[in-house]
Amino acid sequence: MRLVILGGGESGIGTAILGKKKGYDVFVSDFGKIKENYKEVLIINEIAWEEEKHTEDLILNADLVMKSPGIPDKSPVVKRLKEKGVPVLSEIEFAAPFTNATIIGITGSNGKTTTTMLTHHLLKSAGLNVGLGGNIGKSFAWQVADNNYDSYVLELSSFQLDGIVNFKPHIAIITNISPDHLDRYEYKYENYIDSKFRITKNQTEEDYLIYDADDEAITEWFKTHTTKAKLIPFSLTKILSEGAYIKNNKMEISINQEEFTMDTEHIALEGKHNMKNAMAATSVAKLMQIRKSTIRESLSNFQGVEHRLEKVLKIQNVQYINDSKATNVNATFFALDSMNTPTVWIVGGVDKGNDYNELMSLVREKVKAIICLGVDNKKIIDAFGNVVDMMVEVDNMNDAVIMAQRLTEKGDTVLLSPACASFDLFENYEDRGNQFKQAVKNL
């Protein structure tokens, strides 16, 4: 069996290692450059590869193709493969049959990384032999090849879910859905929503779907679609007989006739959206039979996720917060919503079809100045130019942070929450967040 892998990044290399271990004839092809450390892995494992090109003769003879999530379906080589009837899968789909582990799959437009990390933290603290992967950390395929975990917590992007045929998690979570990556879905929101719900398409009556019952897109989907999975909703506004909710500053969870309660003030994560992430993760812990005392302890000592509402430093009584991971409007909505002091907001980057109107009331209420950090800031200036007293454009992170310091007074907050992708001025959101943290430390 010839396995061709398109893309020599983390998921590609992981799949190559697993494929080789399972006896496939493996070839890796990357249209860009392959990182040196990945090349070394390929060479050590005697796996054939090419970079900066896709040689059709070496690709179209595949029995099976694993496509990296970053490569769109409309790329010429993928189209040719599909015309020839060659199956094109995602890494998750390829790797899943090679493990008997219990899989917890987590998707959503926002909150999925925090929920994934928190779920993993809850299970690991309870002594479970559990792996963490998918969209974060070491690729799922690589771990299936090298480790023997009893369960996996996987963060799954819509791009990863698009390549699913038979994959099914035992427990699925949809944290929320808001418009994102619409450029990959023909600018049709419903296509993106359907993509997220692929996480539950193969689930049976034995499986569970945990979801945000306050989310409009999710609620609408359930009006015309069904899943066989047992439903476990969570909500900030409703009281649920089965599921998780907040009442009188207590998180209350009822699943399979078992109750769990905890005062929200003891939960380490702050902000309404994080209560949702905590409810989702705790629902998993309850399904996995984790002891209540362990859950309480883990929720109170969780450190949070880098680049997600990360407190960097307080300088002259001004708090600097790194929320570089906010690459869409909905994520920035949560960030602004959790600000309790006058805020200088650093925003901008590559816009994925953003509608800034959703932020208007929060900006009026909380933002005293806006610093635009992007190559093209026209939409942001048009949206908020008349709403805030001060609007500045900069083209690098150092200037953004220096300008922010000038615009603040004691008791203010400086928030980097871009609502956009980072590829115009930075390598990725991590690079953007790290540059912000460094610039703050240099003040």
UniProtKB/TrEMBL annotation:
Its EC number is 6.3.2.9. Gene3D superfamilies: Mur ligase, C-terminal domain (3.90.190.20), Mur-like, catalytic domain (3.40.1190.10), NAD(P)-binding Rossmann-like Domain (3.40.50.720). It catalyses: UDP-N-acetyl-alpha-D-muramoyl-L-alanine + D-glutamate + ATP = UDP-N-acetyl-alpha-D-muramoyl-L-alanyl-D-glutamate + ADP + phosphate + H(+). The keyword DNA damage does not apply. Pfam families: Mur_ligase_C, Mur_ligase_M, MurD_N. Keywords: ATP-binding, Cell cycle, Cell division, Cell shape, Cell wall biogenesis/degradation, Cytoplasm, Ligase, Nucleotide-binding, Peptidoglycan synthesis. It comes from the Bacteria. Pathway: Cell wall biogenesis; peptidoglycan biosynthesis. Residues 106-284 form the Mur ligase central domain. InterPro entries: Mur-like_cat_sf (IPR036565), Mur_ligase_C (IPR004101), Mur_ligase_C_dom_sf (IPR036615), Mur_ligase_cen (IPR013221), MurD (IPR005762). Residues 307-420 form the Mur ligase C-terminal domain. One of its GO terms (molecular function) is UDP-N-acetylmuramoylalanine-D-glutamate ligase activity. It is an enzyme of class 6 (ligase). Signal peptide: none annotated. Belongs to the MurCDEF family. Cell wall formation. Catalyzes the addition of glutamate to the nucleotide precursor UDP-N-acetylmuramoyl-L-alanine (UMA). This is UDP-N-acetylmuramoylalanine--D-glutamate ligase. It comes from Flavobacterium xylosi. The lineage of its organism: Bacteria, Pseudomonadati, Bacteroidota, Flavobacteriia, Flavobacteriales.
